[in-house]
Design goal:
By secondary structure, the chain is α/β, with parallel strands linked by helices. The chain folds into 2 domains: 138 residues, 2-Layer Sandwich (Nucleotidyltransferase, domain 5), CATH 3.30.420; 160 residues, ATPase, nucleotide binding domain (Nucleotidyltransferase, domain 5). Helix content is 40%, strand content 19%. The strands form 2 sheets. The chain has a 5-stranded mixed sheet with strand order 3-2-1-4-5, sandwiched between helices. It has a 5-stranded mixed sheet with strand order 8-7-6-9-10, with helices on both faces. α9 links the parallel β9 and β10. α5 packs parallel to α7 and α5 runs antiparallel to α8. It is globular. The two termini are 29 Å apart.
Length: 336
């Protein structure tokens, strides 16, 4: 049996969790900073890192207590500690990395750095339905939109990525155009529920090109021009039409990747995986679909612990002294 304390502080959620054997979540505590950053229409990096610092110790205590564990002098409550090392906001990453390394050193246990995207991939292994390898993964979050071929544990090939805005960023920017609250994903989904998704014909970036890459800058600009031309346009109709185009782009490229690879197991993970339209549309693809529980769509420590446990099992842990990195590609089992 292995117990891993997972730490996630890559952006504006502070997540601490204890996971047993890589799949059983004993505790999962997340504090979101959304209410603080909403006033600015997006995440302020300096504020985010300071807020992580203010709560990480208390959340660690809470995660251990909820897991039925306690830290006693000279005895570690867990077998290892894992934390996100990148990508993300540099200041926020350093809070989790520094705290995790210090705690691991004090308890004389291993420290395991984890790539943020790999954490999202392993969020689906925390549920009752878990995919077999190989599978394709569509990772969609605030800063990432990628299609990844997962050949075997920790063997990855990025097949497609965004050339400009990630889909989550596009949701946030369009929400600001519509005077909807941050974060844009939930607010646009709520507004779209009352709208006509055929009211406007917004473009799908790179739809005519033989690439699995995404582009969302044109969609964002099209919404801007539509609002300038129709300043009294119903917000619900614009939101619904935008959401349809944004999701259709994801489905179009994912369907092409499934056909190109011949793989028919699909994981969708990341914050945007909580979007209702995306979940419903993905159900129509020619693939067996695996989705994380809603609690594990947002950034959380449990997914980091799950990824770390798998690397321990397959003896391919990353170097414990790997530096924090604001931008870094997904690493395979050899750390390449």
């Amino acid at each position: 049996m292995s117990l891993i304390l997972g730490i996630e502080t890559s952006c504006d959620e502070t997540g601490l969790a204890v996971v047993k054997d890589g799949t059983t979540v004993l505790s999962n505590v997340v504090i979101s900073q959304i209410d603080t950053h909403r006033a600015f229409g997006g995440v302020v990096p300096e504020i985010a890192s300071r807020m992580h610092t203010e709560v990480i110790y208390q959340l660690t205590q809470r995660a251990l207590e909820e897991a039925g564990l306690s830290a006693t002098r000279g005895a570690a409550p867990v077998d290892a500690i894992a934390a996100t090392f990148g990508p993300g906001l540099m200041g926020s990453l350093l809070v989790g990395l520094s705290f995790g390394r210090a705690a691991a050193a004090a308890w004389h246990i291993p420290f395991l750095p984890v790539h943020h995207i790999e954490g999202h991939l392993f969020s689906v292994f925390l549920g009752e339905r878990r995919p077999e390898y190989p599978f394709l993964a569509l990772v969609v979050s605030g800063g990432h939109t990628q299609i990844i071929r997962c050949r075997a544990p920790h063997q990855y090939q990025v097949l497609g990525t965004t050339r400009d805005d990630a889909v989550g960023e596009c949701f946030d920017k369009v929400a600001r155009l519509l005077n909807l609250p941050y974060p844009g994903g939930p607010s646009i989904q709520k507004a779209a529920a009352e709208g006509d998704d055929n009211a406007y014909s917004f473009p799908i970036g790179l739809s005519a090109k033989s690439t699995l890459d995404f582009s969302y800058s044109g969609l964002k600009t099209a919404v801007l021009y539509a609002l300038r031309e129709h300043p009294d346009a119903p917000v619900a109709d614009v939101a619904a039409s935008f959401q349809r185009a944004a999701v259709d782009a994801l489905i179009l490229k994912t369907a092409a990747a499934l056909e190109e690879t011949g793989i028919h197991r699909l994981v969708i993970a990341g914050g945007v995986a909580a979007n209702r339209r995306l979940r419903e549309s993905a159900a129509g693809l020619d693939a067996k679909l695996f989705l994380p529980d809603m609690a594990y769509c947002v950034d959380n420590g449990a997914m980091i612990a799950a990824a770390a446990a798998s690397r321990l099992t397959h003896q391919c842990s990353l170097p414990p002294d790997i530096p924090a990195a604001a931008t870094i590609t997904l690493m395979d089992s050899a750390g390449n």
